[in-house]
Amino acid sequence: MALTVVGSVAFDSVRTPFGERERMLGGSATHFSLAASFFCEVNLVGVVGEDFDERYERQLTERGIDTQDLQRIAGGKTFFWRGHYDFALNTAHTDTTELNVFADFDPQLGERSRNAEIVFLANIQPQLQRRVRAQCRRARLAALDSMNLWIDSEREELLRAISEVDVVFMNDAELRMLTRQPNLVRAARELMARGPRAVVAKLGEYGASLYTPEGFFSLPAYPLESVVDPTGAGDSFAGGFLGYLAGLGEADIDESVLRRAMTYGSVMASFNVERFGCERVLELTRAEIDERFEEFRRMTAIEALPAGERA
Amino acid sequence: MALTVVGSVAFDSVRTPFGERERMLGGSATHFSLAASFFCEVNLVGVVGEDFDERYERQLTERGIDTQDLQRIAGGKTFFWRGHYDFALNTAHTDTTELNVFADFDPQLGERSRNAEIVFLANIQPQLQRRVRAQCRRARLAALDSMNLWIDSEREELLRAISEVDVVFMNDAELRMLTRQPNLVRAARELMARGPRAVVAKLGEYGASLYTPEGFFSLPAYPLESVVDPTGAGDSFAGGFLGYLAGLGEADIDESVLRRAMTYGSVMASFNVERFGCERVLELTRAEIDERFEEFRRMTAIEALPAGERA
């Protein structure tokens, strides 16, 4: 099955205690697409400027990503973000944001993008998310991400967008902020009452939790000794999660499938942060991904009590 | 096997968004002992004042806890703590601390306490922890907890105490502060290089992680809709963890045993926070404990990929 993502494509300049990079390929739709590309066909809906040359585009197309709906604005400049992370690496500090062509982004979906079975509305204005969602009439599963900016400025519209998707990806602080509910179990339940069948709480260095009406599942982050650049970890997570589901075809998406999707999400996020920007994911193999999937399974397994041990 | 714990026995007055309680039975050694008492014999080494009447003591002895080494200081007053939690329940705000008889605590271990096979040095002055550790010559496993106060004021002595135990329990902020290392994998490795064979990072609402030379294991906190009072959760965790190990007898403590200990720790912590102080643990049954243990196993299980699914 195919997957469509709408979101930002950007140039990122990032400094961390481990070094720095200038104008790397970045943006939510980029990180998402690259992660998902290991599992399924991906259509990327976004916008870039004239400065987005072939070298950048090739990084997407060489992974098989369909960039037909990546608009190029003549005379325009691509979204640019400059940021840095301090020693603890848990907070991105923004130094510069230049929205450029992204400020007037009006997603245009060709037939292939519209017909995808799974659609991911990355962190953009809720109005745009809803417009894209409405165009993907054949989607059997839609998901979105968002951020504090939209919770602050467009809460009602964001809640409408949420009522129109199946899976919500947000970090724990955003879930609390949106629902005004400090308890995450309750926050997730409140959102599910509006329509979604699953809420994924992204917990940064603590991993991610899955809330469904049937249950709860949580995975730690992969224990890395060096996190080099956390930029894009959340979108890589969503890319692994939804990419895996799209790759399954028509199979039922039950609880155990969702748990494996969580695991592939965690795997892709863990690779993403090992190097700057998309560097690690661009050289990744499916064998490495499946190996780390098995490591996650071993890492979290609790054996039953031996017979007779119980008091 | 028997377990000895040295630590505080206190009166706690606590206010949370769910209500308040005056002068409940509290303290680190109390929460620890009650949790461990479901699994093994427990000797409690501590100190109380004349105001610690029979009603309080009975809460310990009725769970089979040996209070022979709980000193009573004539004319003295028991350690008193008053605190509150705000809406998010993740930070304890101290309103009053009256150390009283705990200020001059000089642990006295009778023969039974000294001969225990497992010893837990709860959060007290590192000098006292070392003195108790030295007296427990037969202990096959010793563990300690600590806090920012001792990391600040007695870092070197605390590192010496750590070099003399097998398991370290600390929260993630304390591990970072002690090792001056923001990455927890590295922080744990640095501590293990000093002697301990395991480091348990307590992550509050995110659960707990186990670091050993062989591997990494992490468990989420039990997803409760209402956390009523988090006081004592960390000590209940250590009580479930070490109590389970003591209850095993002479069995080898390998990686899968440690993971089950983590799970029993998480189970006991989750019950502890469901009501004020020790209220929930005091009415708990072993059947409820084992049921939640199984829930944790189900909650974290990832099924293997179905045959042929891999790309």
TrEMBL record, chains A, B:
<feature type="domain" description="Carbohydrate kinase PfkB">
    <location>
        <begin position="24"/>
        <end position="279"/>
    </location>
</feature>
<dbReference type="InterPro" id="IPR029056">
    <property type="entry name" value="Ribokinase-like"/>
</dbReference>
<keyword id="KW-0418">Kinase</keyword>
<dbReference type="InterPro" id="IPR002173">
    <property type="entry name" value="Carboh/pur_kinase_PfkB_CS"/>
</dbReference>
<keyword id="KW-0808">Transferase</keyword>
<protein>
    <submittedName>
        <fullName>Sugar or nucleoside kinase, ribokinase family</fullName>
    </submittedName>
</protein>
<dbReference type="Pfam" id="PF00294">
    <property type="entry name" value="PfkB"/>
</dbReference>
<dbReference type="InterPro" id="IPR011611">
    <property type="entry name" value="PfkB_dom"/>
</dbReference>
<dbReference type="GO" id="GO:0005829">
    <property type="term" value="C:cytosol"/>
</dbReference>
<dbReference type="GO" id="GO:0016301">
    <property type="term" value="F:kinase activity"/>
</dbReference>
